[in-house]
Automatic annotation (TrEMBL):
The keyword Iron-sulfur applies. NCBIfam families: PRK14464.1. It is found in: Cytoplasm. GO terms for cellular component: cytoplasm. Keywords: 4Fe-4S, Cytoplasm, Disulfide bond, Iron, Iron-sulfur, Metal-binding, Methyltransferase, S-adenosyl-L-methionine, Transferase. Residues 93-319 form the Radical SAM core domain. The lineage of its organism: Bacteria, Pseudomonadati, Pseudomonadota, Betaproteobacteria, Burkholderiales. Its cofactor is [4Fe-4S] cluster. Belongs to the radical SAM superfamily. RlmN family. GO terms for molecular function: 4 iron, 4 sulfur cluster binding; metal ion binding; RNA methyltransferase activity. It comes from Ramlibacter algicola. This is RNA methyltransferase.
């Protein structure tokens, strides 16, 4: 029962009508007990549903189990999450009510500065398993924002991610803007996002304005010129009204050069965008270095002065390996399928 469609089929087979189905999904995705609310409402549930619901609830609870918690000093917390088949993924509780969820176990993009993609793709995470990560997070603390920046490239699991987003943006009590779809850039994303009932905010992982360097850093990302990516993202966010978040992992002497800063100004000035610069988080065995905070701050200041809204961020949870590029399927218990 990894997919939301499986959950809906189970409920319908038990006699649930659309309103029963909505209620069960709403309570589950908000981590509220199924018997919350008026007892009288329970009495209106068909008998078959009342009797079958505990088994469905048990299965929903088993979709994303808490294996271990790793609190960071900044109020974030990395969660190792066990899925129904014994695979594991990671979610990160962020300071100020956010949660970062995973959409795949492993990742096929293979960014050279990221731990997640080092073993390639293991499997897709189902739409119900994605919502279950949010429900699990909500069982631990209130969640007001969900970012799809954990393990995996959401564009490579587009149908499942969008099913989860549609549920979270309707029954899940989250505004569209509070759901952040993150991608390295893929034409399918720019076609799909504007058509859905829930239109999430867009985060574009750009990392460089040079096409040749991007091929090197993100070897299996679609070959779309950085300028075209930014234009496609800009067209989407102008329709939604909330800004595009451009993600930039800052790698010393790689993408912090004067040439890159000129490229950023050329691509982003005048766009409805925020550049999020995140100094690289160390990953064992990788050759990259993190620039000093002073150097990163000077870069952010320069870009700001040249007309690009730039935020320099510490990646949440990096002291517990919960930062950008540090997530992986720790303690996986079954072989790769
Ligand atoms: Fe995949 Fe994102 Fe890691 Fe790149 S940075 S390998 S897209 S998880």
């Amino acid at each position: 029962m990894r997919q939301l469609s499986d959950v809906r089929d189970r409920l319908r087979a038990l006699g649930a009508g659309p309103s029963h189905e909505r209620r069960v999904l709403r309570l589950w995705s908000n981590a509220l007990p199924q018997d919350s609310g008026s007892r009288a409402i329970e009495d209106f549930l068909p008998k078959s549903l009342r009797e079958g619901l505990p088994a469905v609830e048990a299965e929903l609870a088993g979709l994303a189990r808490l294996v271990s918690r790793h609190p960071g000093e900044d109020g974030s917390e990395r969660l190792l999450v066990g899925l129904g088949d014994g695979q594991t993924c990671e979610s990160v509780l962020l300071p100020r009510g956010g949660v970062c969820v995973s959409s795949q176990i492993g990742c096929a993009v293979g960014c050279t500065f990221c731990m997640t993609g080092r073993e390639g793709l293991v499997r897709q995470i189902g739409s119900a398993e994605i919502v279950a990560q949010v429900a699990l997070a909500r069982s631990l603390r209130p969640v007001r924002k969900v970012v799809f920046m954990g393990m995996g490239e959401p564009a490579h699991n587009l149908a499942n991610v969008m099913d989860a987003i549609d549920l979270l943006g309707t029954a899940g009590n989250l505004g569209h803007k509070q759901l952040v779809f993150s991608t390295v850039g893929d034409e399918r994303v720019f076609e799909r996002l504007p058509r859905g009932p829930v239109k999430p905010a867009l985060a574009l992982s750009l990392h460089t304005t040079r096409a040749d360097l991007r091929e090197e850093l993100l070897p299996r990302a679609p070959r779309i010129a950085p300028q075209d990516l930014v234009e496609a993202g800009d067209a989407y966010v102008r329709a939604t009204g909330y800004p595009m978040q451009v993600q930039w992992t800052l790698l010393e002497d790689v993408n912090d050069t004067a040439e890159e800063l000129d490229g950023i100004v050329r691509l982003l000035r005048g766009k409805h965008a925020v550049l999020n610069m995140i100094p690289y988080n160390s990953v064992p065995d990788l050759p990259y270095r993190r620039p000093s905070w002073e150097k990163a701050a000077a870069i952010a200041r320069t870009l700001h002065q040249r007309g690009v809204l730039t935020k320099l961020r510490h990646s949440a949870g990096q002291d517990v390996e919960g930062g950008c590029g540090q997530l992986r399927a720790r303690g996986r218990t079954v072989p790769i399928v």
